[in-house]
Amino acid sequence: MILAPLLAVGLGAAAPDPVSVERAFAADARKLGQWTAFRSYAAPNAVMFVPQQVEADRYLRGRADPPSPLSWQPVVSFQSCDGSLAIDQGPWQDSGSRLGRFTTVWLRAETSAGRRWMWVYDGGETLTRPLARAARAVGRRASCTALPANVPDADSREQGFLPPPDAPMPTAQAHHSADYSLRYAYWSDASGRRTFRAWLWKGRAWQLIIDQKIAA
User: Fold this and answer.
1) 133-147 b/e with 16+ CB inside 10 Å = b?
2) In angstroms, what CA-CA distances link 179 with 5, 76, 81, 207?
3) E strand residue ranges, the chain
4) CATH architecture of 14-214
């Protein structure tokens, strides 16, 4: 499997940061309806987990909004050097007692409406204890020093950048920003347990920033 780049174009003009967009996304879910907001912010090729992997466009098409939407807040945002890709994480809650952690991957790309951030991956996990909230999310940007080139598949597999060979398709995916400074991969095993991993370029090597294993 070859790592697939997530390409963004026309990044010269200023744009809202992904944390601001994440907060607007969450606010619209409460104001306009959960699935209405999901549709509005989704990229055409977005995937989500409900809990199985589905194509967001197909799953969300015509789906009625739940009466009580989820709420969520970003507490950390990892961003590529070129500003085209970001991964946000933070706590989510429903109207009852369920809570957990969300992971949103954002791509900044050119659309017919102009440059904007769109989510391409949305996944969450249920937790038994709430995550700490933060008044301001922590932003961590990849180093722009000595940006890496692509890594051969064999080395990528050894370093964990690619899903294991026995991971079922199409649930096994690996992507990176156009400048290779932010990478992520996800896959499921036969039991349905899901893994999500992400790496940030630190100037001399990649740092594993997320190693998330979600129960079936």
Assistant:
1) eeeebeeebbeeeee
2) 9, 21, 7, 16
3) 4-6, 42-49, 53-55, 71-72, 76-79, 85-93, 99-111, 114-126, 138-141, 173-177, 182-188, 194-201, 206-214
4) Roll (3.10)
* pLDDT tens-place string over residues 41-80: 999 999 999 888 899 999 999 999 999 999 999 999 999 9
pLDDT per residue over 165-210, tens digit each?
777 766 788 899 999 999 999 988 777 789 999 999 999 989 999 9
Pairing of strands 53-55, 99-111: unpaired
Domain boundaries, the chain: 14-214
Partner residues linked to 103 by β-bridges? 89, 123
Beta bridge partners of 117: 108
pTM above 0.90, yes or no: no
* Distance in angstroms (rounded) separating the CA atoms of residues 206 and 204: 7
Q: Please report, rounded to a whole number, the percentage of residues in the chain having pLDDT higher than 70.
A: 88
